[in-house]
Amino acid sequence: MTTLGIALDDAALAIARAGDAAAPSIAPSIVDAGRAQRAAAGRSAVASARTAPTAVSSRHWLDLAQGRPPARESLAVARAELGVRAAALPVAAGDAACVAVPATCDGPALSRLLAVFRAAALPVAAFVDAAALAVAALGLREGAAIVVELGLHHAAATRVDLRDGEARRRSARLRLRGGLLALRESWLQLVSEAMVLKTRFDPLHEAATEQRLYDQLDAVAARAARDGSAAIGLSIGSGGSAQRHEVLLTRDQFAARGEAAYRELVAMLHELRPAGAGVTLVAPARLAGLPGLCELLAAELRGCELRLLPDGYLARAAALAAPDLGDGAAVQAAVPLRRGVASFATPLDPEDGPVVVERLDGDTQAAAAKCPTHLLWSGRALPLAGAALEIGRAPAGGGVELPEGLAGVSRLHCTVRYDGGAIVLVDHSRHGTFVNGERVAGRARLRAGDRLRIGDPGVELALIAVGGRGEEAPQH
Fold first, then answer.
1. Could you tell me which of 146, 286, 280 has the C-alpha nearest to residue 225?
2. What is the arithmetic mean of pLDDT over 5-27?
3. Of the candidates 284, 231, 282, which has an alpha carbon nearest to the alpha carbon of residue 254?
């Protein structure tokens, strides 16, 4: 009996076979919906996504994953896609699958997924949380990690805690808007506007030229992310009469179009990361091809480590993490969902490409390391060189006294003080204190430029460094 590992990542759905050195089968879930010809349902439609958009399905997995009853078409398309992919492997009698499910999947989704897999003649031995699986396969040290998903129509982030050799999902954030297809749409508009401005040629006036331009977007955006700029263009006509329409676009131009989506992702990461903690971020390698995103992460999440996983990594991990498949295990009525995954005896070394590791320090490291000298509150700059500064509804003399009636504010909410060569915030409240949108877990080191939020919706205080004193903590 062979175990298949399947990663339900709609941007790069992957299937791998345990013990197979061959590369996993990987393809985005942009497939023919079978509306015109049922025999074509489930087959890749990436090459016709712009020329025949009404005949293409890309939302079927997201539709199945959510709590509402899915459309009948989504069930049919997902089943057809799995059938096409299984036929290409092929799947042998007795094979069973361990399926890595994304953060989009709620409880009811698992029963729908199980039905789809069984209808496609792919018995499921177990479902496993994709985020927990990624952390376990990497062999990360004990602590916290945040796993990022970038799907076709969504973005998500999941916090995973690694304790006593087990990676376990703790909490997740999900945004059901944006996603890679929305990013590509914004980039397509950027290219069209630049081309019309430069050459007066509108590449979107015809579906065929739009598709040709669309096919280049990912590669061009990745070059811009790496090199700072990249050219994109089209040749119209043939022979000696062919005309070349080309524009050069910068990383910043691409990043500006993606800023709203990037900020949504960063906000989710801030919600999950304990304030100032140096967690490990785990993300698909496609993140590096999004111009400006790594730079934003470096500015917002300094001190963290970023690990980029090649496509197919989770499918291989799922195949290896599958439970022992005894007789009949693959066709049991109830299939478990494993939220916790034991760490691998040795970290999984991908055969599809390296796991890229980067430190998120960037060019902002020196500025970020500055120690604050003052706290800004209500138009005043309160020096931090003296005694501890208490903040709350009834702080000690000289502290920051917040008005009565503010929701989520304690009498002594938190304290800002000098400790061990740094300025730190100590939280005393039940409701929490937030630094740059991240909840403080007990205490957190503060830096110039940080912003404190207290209460709900709360009041905000800023930390600054003035007078050339910001390179080191004030002396006591």
1. 286
2. 91
3. 231
Among candidates 166, 142, 169, which has minimal Cα distance to 158? 169
17 forms beta bridges with 4
Residue 30 near residue 48 (C-beta atoms within 8 A): no
Residue by residue, DSSP assigns 224-291 as: HHHHSEEEEEEEES-GGG-EEEEEEEEHHHHHHHHHHHHHHHHHHHHHHSPTT--PEEEEEGGGGGST
DSSP state of 362: G
Is the pLDDT at 330 greater than 50, yes or no?
A: no
What would the pLDDT profile of 263-310 be if each residue is shown by its tens digit? Answer: 999 999 998 988 878 899 999 999 999 999 999 998 888 889 999 999
Dihedral, CA atoms, 298, 300, 303, 306, nearest 10 degrees?
-50
Determine if the peptide bond prior to 347 is cis (ω within 30°): no
Domains and CATH numbers, the chain: 3-177+263-360 (no CATH), 369-464 (2.60.200.20)
The two structure tokens encoding residue 45:
């439609």
Going by C-alpha positions, the residue among 460, 462, 371, 465 that lies closest to residue 418 is 371
